[in-house]
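Thanks for the sequence, V.! I ran Response regulator right away. Repeating your input here for the record:
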Amino acid sequence: MKAIIIDDEKHVRDGLLLLGEWDRFGIHEIFEAKDGEEAKTLILEQRPEIIFTDMNMPKLDGIQLLKWLHDKEINSKTIVVSGYDDFHYMRNAITYGSFDYILKPIEPDVLNETLERATKEWKKQALMRESTLENTRVMNEIKPLYWDHLFTGIMNKPTIPSDAKEKIQKEFGINITEVQCTITLLSINSIISRYFEGDKDLAFFSMLNICNEIVWSNRNGFCFRNVNKEDEIVILLWTHKNQFDLLEKVQISISKYCHIKLTMAVGKPSQQLHETYQSALQTMLKYNIVEANKKKIVSYQDISSSPLLHILDYTQEIMWALQSGSIEQMDDVLNRIFHSLQSTHILSFEQIQVWENQFELLRKNWLKEYNINEQISQYNGKDYWKDDGSFSYEKFREEKRKEFHELIHSLYKVKYQKEKNSIQEIESFLRNNYERDIPLQEIADRFYLSREYISRKFKAEYNETITNYLTNIRIEKAKELLENPHLKIYEISFKVGYQNEKYFSKVFKKAVGLSPNEYRVSMMSK
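Predicted structure:
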């Protein structure tokens, strides 16, 4: 806590500093001022909880200071210290809310007893102020949430409960069941990450304030957050006069605030709240996103039925591209899909949802097929928007390509590792069985792979055919055995897998440049 002592006589200030048991009452900073004028600056800067002031001072006396404190609504506990036992001073001290009035000469017991009561009273009132402020803050936060939940609940039901109708009547002065309403939907997904850095609550708070400043302030309706959706603001209008002008004003206000124009989907007017909401929802799902870049307010009258493109129809082609590991082959498939999407379909939110759901199903099945942990982070492309909030078909294409490219990389990496492990196991098998004939079919049967596949992959991994690789193993082993002078050539031939000594000698000389005997002599002469 802080205190200030205001008196034009320094010895009085020194006396108070000396007599007060400041530490006992939690007061650790004490300021001094020689008159009211000087004190005003310190009080505004330091905000002391306790103020001691003389009454008879130059420039600005105690009465004027008390009046200033009262006008400024400063909640400090003010203790008047005066040598004038005069009712005039006491009356003003009471009038302007001083905590107590003590006379000079100051007695230590009186000073500290007054100081104790003042600090206790300050702490008590501070707690009450904090509690009041907290209650007000909580209520201000809860109230919008309350209406978000109430309106979300009733717009999804065919009938409105009587208690909800009464609450709306009391708060908004409108009988919601007797007026024709129109619901307009606003998706803020494109600005949550771009403008609000992913802070969804801040985005909703800001956007709803902008919307209601125009809609509710004119008593035309109310804007709220659909608590069942991640990014949906609902504009409920119960006054239809110039409603499109009103929506345009909301749009312009949002554009001024975050430099983004968001598309609004307007439902069909109805006395049934759930009917106008379902109409707005269909508008939001089915309108042509690309065309909406030109027209930012779309109505239920603007939508037309169009067949949806299903990427599951391309499952076989996608599978071949994934198995090939070829980005070029995958891009060929995607180009055909994109061409079909542009030429014979409408790109809508519904179409995007169908694409995303079906891709997720494909990806999940392929990850399972390759025994890849589904928890591994996979790229999810959702950024389809330009800086001004309009939809970008080019960015949509790029995001979808990235998803397929990452999937093909993930699968190919696992496939390559599995293939590499299989070929390494075959190489190990050859080293452990070089002393006998090993037909390629035996290897194929053992490792459940085709002979053609084994031949191709083995050569790619070791730069040798299996036959040549096995011959090299045998020759290296024969060299080791030839260092033993007690072994006959035919014995060595048999041990390294050759039943015919002459054939062994021929193969050995071709590989080494010396016959087995010549090689042995050369090794012994070293």
